[in-house]
Amino acid sequence: MLGMFAAPRVNMREDYGKVRRVQRRLVSLWRPLRRVPFRQTAAQVGNRMIPVRIFQPTDRRRNDILVFFHGGGWVTGDIATYTPACAAMADLTGCTVASVNYRLAPEHPFPAGLEDCVNVAQQLLDDPRRAGIDNAGDIVLVGDSAGANLAAAVSLVLRERGHRGPDRQILLYPVTHWDHNPSTSPFDSVREHGEGLRLTNAEIDAYFDLYVPDAERRRNPHVSPLLASDLSGQPKTLVITAEQDLLRDEGEAYGQALADAGNEVTIYRVPEALHGFIQLPKISRQMRDAYEVINEFLDAELAAGQCAPSSGLASS
């Protein structure tokens, strides 16, 4: 049954343009899209504008602004194709969601997309009134997959540059390491779930080839956050992984590394979930499970304790 949801087997190095067109076509067929309330705006960086799509929840229950970086291997996806997921995120959290349309590879390889995300986050954190709030502490970075990689890297970059960073970040099945070769990867999930499911080892290798063509640069902590020599001073972090995902172990390892560096961390593994589950319908069990944990994270200070991945809430 899980295999029925496998991503199309395409040569991403050659067919990324076709994949983008198919994604846009599919989202255009999503009938509720016509009723999704959002506002289109942009952040200005020099002479260039970075599009940002703002989603308001039907019932706003929190002051938090979720600054969202979409997934898609740094190559596919955009604020249009993630509109259903962001609308669901706004309604399920009761938060405003600001989805960032960062530049994609291979037209704009690393670090172009990362710099877009850094610039948007920095502008909002330096002047939260841009987001319609008074307190920068209400800004939460959120990303899924490659977007979670970008969120983690943004937090690292802002600290390194001496800027105010976010107080909280939510990383959904993040990419944190460069090696997804079953023969050399340090993570068992790469060998257990790297074929036939939603994301494969071959596909993520293709994404890396397009995003960071120079293989040596993939060890840069801004590409592989797990390799950062100093993870101190990072935001309170929620890491959510999917049980049936090749990225599972590296995401949990990053959460543990953050905790070992003295940060407050919660790690949660969604049972039986596939990579990309954040784009499932709101009624899905995996979505309900994940958002229950997300809402608890948004509502409460993280309690001290042992940080251990599980199919349940664990914190440190």
Order of helices and strands: HEEEHEHEHEHHEHEHE
Instruction: Give me the CATH architecture, please.
Output: 3-Layer(aba) Sandwich
Shape, per Cα inertia axes: globular
Query: How many runs of DSSP E, i.e. beta strands?
Result: 9
Enter the CATH topology name.
Answer: Rossmann fold
For this structure, what is the CATH homologous superfamily? Alpha/Beta hydrolase fold, catalytic domain
**For the report, how would you describe the main beta sheet?**
9 strands, mixed
* Helix count from the secondary structure assignment: 8
Question: How much helix is in the residues?
Answer: 25-40%
Q: Give the uncertain stretches in residue-range form.
A: 301-306
Instruction: Return the structural class.
Output: alpha/beta
Quaternary state of the chains: single chain
Give the averaged pLDDT, no decimals.
Answer: 91
Distance between the termini: 35 Å
User: Would you state the CATH class?
Assistant: Alpha Beta
Strand order of the largest sheet: 1-2-4-3-5-6-7-8-9
